Input
Amino acid sequence: MKAQKLAALSILASVGLMGCSAIQLNPNAHRVIASRNAAPKGCKYLGSVVGSQGNFFTGGWTSNKNLAEGSMNDMKNKAANMGGNYIQIEADRAGMTGSSSSNMYGSSGSLAQTDVTWNGNAYYCDPKEIGLE
Output
């Protein structure tokens, strides 16, 4: 029984620690450019991409910087896997999770950023057109 509890705590700690670091950028995604600017003429549209990191459980232990960086890396990884090298960013959102309580002395609460999501359109562009060569 103790071994099972220890194993469960180890798994929970591992999951919690994974939430602390940003999603890593895959080697094939290092040359993906993300911009709010429209893709240059002649680029081939590949599809919509969504990148996200965090949730109500791990997001509170992850820095805002890592949430933003990890979600961007997730989106670039997905675009690269589609064969893309350019993302036109459409929207970004930061989610908040909070709690509140009240008693006879008043109420209190807190909010924390717990997730970040980026949406965009993936394209394949001539590398010269987007400054990669």
Summary: The radius of gyration is 19 Å. The longest strand covers residues 106-124. The chain has one domain: 2-130. The chain is about 25% helix and 40% strand.
